[in-house]
């Protein structure tokens, strides 16, 4: 009995170390976002990132060999968020306009903190993945996944499969482009209800899979 507690404590140590490593990695990425947002990519050094993150240069290199790998990690953040956001919509049992609007409001709330990262990646361009072919392939694979989320079982579409896939892709691109331009690009939205207008556009594209009445305010 007396020997079990130390064993449990010893077994807990790796998880604590892993959590420390995760938090340190996040600090490095947050520092990188701050520096990339203030200076051009070419001018940023690993020393700059270390200073902004409050760690040593050796610590930065322990997690990332260079700036390209940092940009790749930031891009992975965006893809992970998009995967979660579209997964949330796919998990809604029945799509009504009220449901889509509520989902979009949640997407805006989650996308807004990602705006600085998106600005950094936009400024970096294709550098984020090293070459155009790799960037294209990753984008295609990600969007194929989002389309499958929105068109897969048990979702019922009153449209041929090819049309359902195109509508789902167009809805995804509508959301991505508007939120990116608005939240990250600083587009001056002047309408009283930008999320409501976006919901109208998305619902139009998803119409063959929508259920329930049109609950737009009259």
What can you tell me about this protein's structure?
This protein has 218 residues and is mostly helical. The chain contains nine helices and no strands. Helix 5 crosses helix 9.
What keywords describe this structure?
Arc Repressor Mutant, subunit A; 9 helices; 218 residues; elongated; Tetracycline Repressor, domain 2
CA gyration radius, whole angstroms: 21 Å
- The overall number of domains is 2
Helix percent band: over 70%
| CATH class division of the largest domain | Mainly Alpha
Number of strands: 0
* Anisotropy-based shape: elongated
Count up the helices: 9
Run of helices and strands: HHHHHHHHH
Which structural class should the secondary elements be placed in?
mainly alpha
Mean of pLDDT: 89
Q: Could you tell me how far the N terminus lies from the C terminus, measured between alpha carbons in angstroms?
A: 71 Å
The largest β sheet comes out as: none
Just name the CATH architecture of the largest domain: Orthogonal Bundle
* Unreliable stretches covering 5 or more consecutive residues: none
Approximately how much beta-strand content do the residues carry?
under 5%
From the 3D structure, determine the CATH topology of the largest domain: Tetracycline Repressor, domain 2
């Amino acid at each position: 009995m007396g020997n079990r507690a130390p064993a449990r404590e010893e077994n807990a140590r790796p998880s604590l170390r892993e959590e420390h490593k995760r938090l340190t990695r996040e600090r490095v990425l947050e520092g990188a976002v701050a520096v990339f947002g203030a200076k051009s990519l070419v001018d940023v050094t690993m020393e700059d990132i270390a200073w902004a993150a409050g760690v040593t240069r050796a610590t930065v290199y322990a997690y990332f060999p260079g700036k390209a790998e940092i940009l790749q990690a930031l891009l992975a953040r965006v893809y992970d968020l998009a995967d979660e956001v579209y997964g949330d919509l796919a998990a809604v049992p029945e799509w009504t306009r009220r449901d889509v609007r509520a989902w979009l409001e949640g997407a805006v709330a989650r996308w807004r903190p990602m705006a600085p990262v998106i600005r950094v990646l936009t400024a970096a361009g294709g550098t984020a993945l090293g070459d155009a072919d790799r960037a294209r392939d990753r984008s295609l694979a990600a969007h194929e996944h989002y389309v499958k989320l929105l068109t897969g079982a048990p979702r019922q579409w009153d449209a041929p499969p090819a049309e359902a896939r195109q509508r789902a892709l167009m809805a995804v691109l509508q959301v991505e482009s508007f939120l990116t331009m608005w939240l990250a690009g600083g587009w001056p939205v002047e309408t009283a209800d930008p999320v409501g207008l976006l919901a109208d556009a998305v619902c139009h594209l998803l119409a063959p899979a929508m259920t329930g009445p049109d609950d737009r305010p009259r």
